[in-house]
Amino acid sequence: MSKVDLLIVKPGSARKQYSVFKDTLAAVEPPLWGLLLASCAREKGYSVSVLDAEAENLTPDEAAAKIKEADPLLCGVIAAGSNLSASTQAMPGASQLLGLIRQAVPGLKTFLWGLHPSALPERTLKEEKPDFVMQGEGFSATLGLLERLKAGRSEFDTPGVWYMKDGAAVPNPREPLVADLGSLPMPAWDLVPMAKYRAHNWHCFDDLDRRTPYAVLYTSLGCPFDCHFCALKALFGKPQIRYRPPEKVIEEIDFLVKNYGVRNIKVLDECFILNRAHVEKICDLIIERGYDLNIWAYARVDTIDPALLAKLKKAGVNWLALGIESGSEKVRGAEKTRNYTQDKIREAVDRIHAADIAIVANFIFGLPEDDLASMRETLDMAKALNCAYTNFYTAMAYPGSALYDDAVKNGTKLPDSWLGYAQFSEETLPLPTKHLSSGEVLAFRDAAFDEFHSSPAYLAMMGEKFGPKTVEHVKEMLKLKIKRKYAAGAGK
């Protein structure tokens, strides 16, 4: 890399976040937001590079050496993970890299971007010591910083930017959100090693040898819902959604297919199946081209449109990730945006399965009203639904969420380090409930994952749907055990 105006860096922190799953099961995802920031700067005439230390499998020291070699005017470190909410657990890697940058390239101006920094800008600025913290999307903020640095300015009156002056944090107003997503340039895909990205194992259960190449794209930004456990509004300011023109979406799909042979695609949208006209237009454009795509996207039980399912399947949407969260009506009833009935859940699942679309069912153990009986209800529901893959998460008080605000207000014990917010690390420390300790919730989660994915009914269904090779893959997956420091019974 030669000297550039802007260098965007994704730290290589996946090994700590994903533990034993990192090398074989977890996805290696392109830093989509970093690529968007890079493309916006490049469109305005700035020279830009991207360093994905995770995809390149670089150690923190190697990444710092690459940054020194690039000698940028401004270096942006991206604290994000496989989705926007996976930012807090990426902070240890970002923090380590920032420290090494200060040693290797004294005086280099750095900024930290991510949902976590947006939620805790002042704390992040003081603890992690970047020169700047972005609060919000960062598109105009990045351009404002570059403009001022180029001009040799020492005052950074740039909306969306926090910085230190005379020992105090200086805030600026939040930057305005981009009103027209069609005005954003395509992510800078040419700046990253596309051959090194890999889909999740379950995403390719139909062909486990075809997990690369892989891309992530967005068709909307934000979410109109305000779930108690979600921190998304910290990035966008409030619950809201904006749509990217379908013509821009298909332009990007065309580019990815023709230039990189991409088949596996994740739709980043918090809820893709929401606006029927938007989704239908995107599907029609894909179907017209006859692409052989393998797409997965997020949906909600209460946004499934039966009339759309056949078209989604024809367009290559083979997987929908469905946020069910709990099998207990009592627990779901306390989450205002998830208060749907057992029958509604079953109806949605049956309709999706009837369209030959596989489901990733997402559940959370340890929501405030959970006890052992309600968590058992959740596991029993998961087994009855028997979806092709099931994620069992533990409730985390991510900064920016109402759960975090409640935990701070009530003095609830939170993880000692940001790595404790990672779902699959040794340091994982979920929230306690009104009835259970953190350790009890975590131990139940790990046992539930094994019980579900090893059940005879599940393995029989998988054999029928995907074949014996995938069944053996699942069995091998179950041999990988996460070390847990805080699970009930750990160390005994």
How would you describe this structure to a colleague?
- The structure is a single chain.
- The model has no long low-confidence stretch (mean pLDDT 93).
- It is globular and about 65 Å long.
- It has helices at 14-18, 32-43, 60-70, 91-104, 115-119, 121-128, 139-150, 233-236, 246-260, 276-289, 306-315, 329-334, 342-354, 372-385, 402-410, 438-453, 456-466, 468-478; strands at residues 6-10, 48-52, 74-78, 109-113, 132-134, 161-165, 168-170, 214-217, 220-223, 240-243, 264-267, 294-300, 317-325, 358-365, 389-394.
- Helix 17 crosses helix 18 (468-478).
- Helices cover 39% and strands 16% of the residues.
- A seven-stranded mixed sheet has the order 2-1-3-4-5-6-7, with helices on both faces.
- Helix 14 links the parallel strand 14 (358-365) and strand 15 (389-394).
- The N and C termini lie far apart (51 Å).
- It has two domains: 6-170, Cobalamin-binding domain (Rossmann fold, 3-Layer(aba) Sandwich), CATH 3.40.50; 198-395 and 430-478, pyruvate-formate lyase- activating enzyme, CATH 3.80.30.
- It is α/β, with parallel strands linked by helices.
Q: Number of helical segments?
A: 18
The CATH class label of the largest domain is Alpha Beta
Average pLDDT metric: 93
Looking at the structure, the CATH topology of the largest domain is: pyruvate-formate lyase- activating enzyme
Give the overall form.
globular
Measured as a percent range, the helix fraction is 25-40%
Can you identify the CATH superfamily of the largest domain?
tm_1862 like domain
Percentage of residues in DSSP E strands: 15-25%
Structural class label: alpha/beta
> Strand tally, please?
15
The major pleated sheet works out as: 7 strands, mixed
